[in-house]
Amino acid sequence: MPATRLARLRRRARRVLVIEAVALAAMLPAGVIAIFLIVGLAGFGGWRADLAALIGLGLALRHAITHYRPPAPEAADRRIERDSRLPHRPLAALGDEPALAGAAPLWEAHRARTDRALATARVGLPRPDFAAHDPFALRFLLLLGVIAAWIAAGSQAGSRLAASVEFTSPFARPGLAVQAWITPPRWAGATPRLIGAGTDKVTALAGSTLAIIVTGAGNAAPAAWIGGKALGFAGIGTGSFRAQQTLDRSTTLSIGPFWDRIARKTITVIAPTPPRIGFAAPPAPTPAARRVGLAWRGSSRYGLTRLGLVLRPVEAPGGVADRAALPVAKPQGEDFAGSARLDLLASPLAGMKVAATLEAVNRDGQTGSSAPAQLLLPAPALHDPTARALEAIRQALARGTPGRAALGARLRSLAAAPPGKLTPETRAALAHFAAGFGPKTPDYAQAEAGLWTLVQRAELGTAYEATRQLDAAAQALRDELSRELSHPMSGQKTAPSRFRQLMQRLDRAMQARQDATPRSARGDQAQQAAQRAAIDRLAHQIRQELASGQTAQAERDMARLRQMLNRLTAPQASGSAAAQQQQQQQQRQAAARRLAAIMRGEAKLMDRTARRDAMPAPGGQPALPAQPGAAGLAQSQEGLRSQLAAAARSMQGAGLPGQSTLGQGQRAMTAARNALGTGDIPAALSGERQAIAALQQAAGALAAMAGQSPAGGGQVAAGQNAAGGDGAFGNQNASDVSLGKAGLHSTARQIENALIRRDQTPELPAEAHRYYGRLLGGE
Question: Is the dihedral of CA 330, 335, 340, 342 positive or negative?
Fold first, then answer.
């Protein structure tokens, strides 16, 4: 028999013997388990049954381990011989040697016969001798008991078994309940969050408060630990206790000892992150060189409390930074965006190249900054030599070079011999300020504010006091309307007499500054009168909106009023910018006259087109053909379109608004020309109406540029970006009222022609343009 086969048979025989020995040793533990299953299926489970089963199983396992005997080495050969039915123990003879000399041939023959007998040797399956260890066959009785108990339990067998293996501590208190929740920090603005009973892992914001309430605990609260330290409970009633802990780092909460664990939570604490903010477009001065246009976007998980712009002089890294506040709009989720046009003419860095940085502050006080962007700030228009000298000293103070001692000497020299003519009051104020200016006093903020006041006094001369009164009157009106706007439902409305007093005060202050301003610098009196009238109308409109509960519209109009008052009281731009503004005003007026002429021509063409409108035949029959002569109308329409294209190119070269609207007008005229060429008179009338609407919007944009503020303030491209527009051209009601199919002498046609003629009046105020535009369905 080969040695490898014999070794394989011996390994298998040893495994079979081990299985039989283990099976016999496991009889007692298996019996304990069977008894536990019978008790559980019968519904008698509980902590007592669990405890008895654990004790019995432990004793049975101990008995099995102590009575287990591994098989002897020769037992494997005996098992092979027995299962193979080999007599005379042939495997034992394999290791024998012949005792007599000369018996080798006979012994080899014996070995060969033994090998042939072992060629069919095998090892059978395990056959533990259960009967020898269980003579009363109790094993069958236990098996029948398990089957009977399972059948008796029926559909409740699974739940009874699950309940029987669920260990309930003998120390547990049946009425004990634990509630835990996390309250985020107040600045987060979030509501408390309850921790569910099955939640093992929890996340919390740093600074949150963990609160735990235990009820039904009896006379003593359960032991609890957080981060390895004991958590103290305070009694809040009979059997009820409360504990609080501020979370500043990740930790683990454990309630109850390890043998009676009530709850265990892993709490991960997350630190808040600062906002992210950046420029949506590079900041740059507006075309009029009075303001700086900004646009930004960013994100903040924890809201916004403040936005600001920080300006630092590029050529003086050690200089003092200047700051300006930015409006905080309501974010859309975590994202926010906004834009503003800042008047920075009063900044000590005006006229310098600066590095601008945006700053955003969240509710936690964390600050996020943008990458710096460089730009040249607009400079104020200063014609008085003393004002220019004082402004140079103010800028040197902001740069930090030269030192304050040198600046003090320059101030005292300037006070002794001012290069320009000053009023006695301004001269005395300059001398007093120069005498008190030292190396350390006053501080930078007081020194900068004092120098700016002197700059304004020197520049404005006798108009300084009038300008101050105008600023105070405008601020009083702002404050009063802001108070009403902040408490719209409180019923604390401004009395009509008080409101009239504020408006009269503002009017007197505007007139006083106009009278104190030299005639050469007074500007267009008609435009200033229009400004006063527009402010008065808008202020009354805000009060009416507040009285009727239109708070959102009142807020928008309040923003417009602030912009109008800011323009009214703002410093003048530099000399070159003023000349540029005058040139732009002349270009605007010329463009307005040109658009009015085109509008009149389009209105006349619309009247001629209406005369050729095909009238429908009675009884639902096909319409009668249009009258001849439409080709001439198409040529007239093409001529007007060419004029509008030339006007649009001229306005684009001058940087005037309304380019997109004029493009709409050209497309509408092209559509009208094509419709006239094919004889489709209704389509031609529709295109002509759209062209007139576009011309009206462009005229409104030019009027708004002149200072007659449109909705939202500032320069608004009429139509597409106008605030509040809902229709195709920004009209409020988004409805189309077709007048093109009306007869020539109909009342609707006569009203439309009258409105178009009135809207063509040169230098018509923006309010009137918008009013006529809404009536005509164009704005």
Answer: positive
What's the pTM?
0.51
Q: Can you read off the two tokens belonging to residue 424?
A: 């006695």
- Eight-state DSSP code of residue 619: G
Name the E strands within 126-280. Answer: 177-183, 193-195, 201-205, 209-215, 224-226, 229-230, 234-237, 240-246, 251-255, 263-270, 276-279
Omega of the bond prior to 402 within 30 degrees of 0, cis? yes
Hey, how many other C-beta atoms are within 10 angstroms of the C-beta on 122?
11
What span, in angstroms and rounded, lies between the C-alpha atoms of 691 and 678? 19
**Whether the Cβ atoms of residue 312 and residue 321 lie closer than 8 Å to each other:** yes
Question: pLDDT tens for residues 338-394?
Answer: 888 888 888 999 989 999 999 999 988 999 999 999 999 988 888 889 999 999 999
Going 613 to 615 to 620 to 622, the CA torsion angle's sign is negative
Residue 332 DSSP class: B
DSSP-derived 3-state class of residue 721 = coil
Contact 165/190 with Cβ under 8 angstroms?
no
Helices (H), 119-213: 130-133, 138-153, 157-165
Give me the pLDDT at residue 12, please: 86
Angle, CA 745 vertex, CA 741 and CA 748 arms, to 5°: 60
How far is residue 373's CA from residue 355's CA, in Å, rounded to a whole number?
5
Question: Are residues 576 and 742 in contact, defined by beta-carbon separation less than 8 angstroms?
Answer: no
Q: Token pair for residue 663? A: 């493009």
Q: What is the pLDDT of residues 53-74, one digit of tens each?
A: 888 888 888 888 888 888 887 8
Judged by DSSP in three states, 115 sits in helix
> Cα–Cα distance between 151 and 205 in angstroms, integer?
54
Residue with tokens 């939640």: 199
Among residues 515, 520, 644, 521, the alpha carbon closest in space to that of 572 is found at 521
DSSP-assigned states of every residue in 541-596: HHHHHHHTT-HHHHHHHHHHHHHHHHHHHPPPB-HHHHHHHHHHHHHHHHHHHHHH
Q: Give the span between the Cα atoms of 129 and 85, in whole angstroms.
A: 19
Pick from 63, 74, 60: which is nearest to 14 by CA? 74
Predicted local confidence at residue 75, as pLDDT: 82
Q: Using an 8 Å Cβ cutoff, are 314 and 605 in contact?
A: no
> 778 with 734: CB under 8 angstroms?
no
* Count of residues making up the chain: 779
Rounded CA separation 475/483 (Å)? 12
Q: What does the alpha-carbon distance between residue 246 and residue 167 come to, in Å, rounded to a whole number? A: 34
- 482-491: b or e for each residue (b if 16 or more CB lie within 10 Å)? eebbeebeee
Residue type, 451: L
258-282: string of b/e by CB count within 10 Å (b at 16+)? eeeebbebebebeebebbbbebeee
Nearest alpha-carbon partner for 666 in 696, 633, 688: 688
The token pair that represents 8 in the structure block:
């394989």
Question: What is the rounded distance in angstroms from the CA atom of residue 93 to the CA atom of residue 113?
Answer: 12
| Angstrom distance (rounded) from CA 579 to CA 576 | 5
Per the CB < 8 A criterion, the answer to whether 477 and 532 are in contact is no
